[in-house]
Amino acid sequence: MDWGTLLRESVANIRQLSLHYPVEKDAAKVTRKYPMRINPYYLSLIKERGDAIWKQSVPDIRELEDEEGVPDPLHEENDSPVAGLVHRYPDRVLLLVSDRCAMYCRFCTRKRSVGDPFKRIKKEQVLKGIEYIREHAEIRDILISGGDPLLLKDEELAFFLEPLKEIKHVEVLRIGTRVPCALPQRITDGLVSLLRRYHPLYINTHFNHPVEFTEESRKACSKIADAGIPLGDQTVLLKGLNDSVDVMNALIRGLWSMRMTPYYIYQADLTKGTKHFRTDVEVGIEIFKSLKFHPSLPMPHFVIDAPGGGGKIPITPECGFYDVINGDGIEALNLDYLEYNVLKSGLEDARDKGAAIIAIELGSFKIEREDKEDKRVYELLTQYHPIYINTHLNHPDELTEDVKRVSSMLSDAGVPLGDRIDLIEGVNDDPKVIKELVLGLLKFRVKPYYLHADREEDGLAIINSLRGFTTGMAVPHLVVGDRIICPNYIEEKTDEKIVLRNYQGRTFEYPNALSL
Ligand SMILES: *Cc1c(COP(=O)(O)O)cnc(C)c1O
Ligand code: SF4
Questions:
Q1: How many other C-beta atoms are found inside a 10 Å radius of the C-beta of residue 369?
Q2: Per residue in 55-76, pLDDT tens?
Q3: Whose CA is nearest to atom 8 of ligand 1?
Q4: Does the beta carbon of 273 sit less than 6 angstroms from any atom of ligand 2?
Q5: 3-state secondary structure of 440
Q6: Which residue among 34, 66, 101, 141 is the active-site one?
Q7: 3 state DSSP class of 265
Q8: At how many degrees (to 10) do helices 401-412 and 372-382 cross?
Q9: Which of 348, 260, 237, 334 lies closest to 295, judged by CA?
Q10: How far apart are CA 106 and CA 208, in angstroms?
Q11: Structural contact between residues 231 and 194, judged by C-beta atoms closer than 8 angstroms
Q12: Any idea which ligand is nearest the CA of 116?
């Protein structure tokens, strides 16, 4: 079935759902307040009542019993200079282009408006948002969201992307979408060939549980990655659904195997109607400490989106990389540069060892000769996916036209690109230099994964100068020795609440679930 048909055949009320499963009658009350939509694909993933798919999609009477939550916990509407545009951080905005989704997630932060027929987003409104962006030269990064932007038709999407692309100060476009997970059939060849006209374009999607990794979602993600679009994932920690070490490890591993960067793991927002999903902050921190991270593969930031609109504040605990001696299906390959024969034998070796994921640590983006011969390098890489390349660019002066050409060819060969920065005294230990480097890398479709520093305080100073002031995608994880360290943004922690400090030095309170 094509995606339009799937959407039309969605289960949109309790009566329709009861044709498939016995459902509590009370649930119908919920749909009067918060819409329901489960498309036939997502519905087919339900194996039994109450499983991870069910909990995300089937209305629950507890949605009406939440006394603590608030409709707009992140104060998005206060930070909206024009309707449908949130300008919270200096250099980037959130632009809402659609009010509909492939499914309505019960835990949604924008539950107050998504899917509400009285809160439709009109074309004129989005055009006003684009006008605002045009008039604000400090905006360099546009996060296109909704609802789900990919519920728009191809030509509607192009209608907004085209003027955004023309704005000189806009360097990066991002689309936030749940479609690769919730309606993978939407990722058509037509869509990806449209999207690839807008590089550097990033897609961040949203998987919450390994049962969402199916043949269809794999295919959708492959198409996106093959079009040279760097893919990231944002996951919400949800009680009784993915709040366990095993589930989260399987999730991260699955994301890697689908060429995705685990980007953010969110503590659930204080959205009214979602209380039954909220975990204790401490639970998330404990889980995070036990996750398996790999030094050549990307790892997520654990964040609380500050109630009241302070932005995303990391609460990532200190942790380490797991012991990779046994390989565990991940083979790391060290290469000085890409030379066809060396690469070929390395990849063959890795495959012989049973590698499920190959991570190449690459000394330099230099390619032996840039002629017809070297097309073979890119073609070879496409045969060994999932394959990651992690390079070592330390200074913005290294971001040359040659590096640009090679990184762009590698991306187009579907390889997610990362960078490991070494903080070196007198070379790049200046926040301005690192900022220029990381933002330049993102323009080249390279994500800064790790910053290695000899001294913790030097590294922390750099991270603090980036966090909030630039996109989280530009903020690497700090590695000192064998520890991964995040600056401490927690001012105070009691049984009742946790007090967080954002990048501007303002403080925000998040209640500890224990007290709710
Ligand atoms: C999440 C968010 C962004 C993007 O944040 P990144 O760290 O760049 O991913 C931008 N604006 C608003 C209002 C947001 O909530
Ligand atoms: S897809 Fe995203 S915006 Fe839509 S209901 Fe789910 S969480 Fe909300």
A1: 9
A2: 999 999 999 999 889 899 989 8
A3: 471
A4: no
A5: helix
A6: 101
A7: strand
A8: 40
A9: 334
A10: 13
A11: no
A12: 2
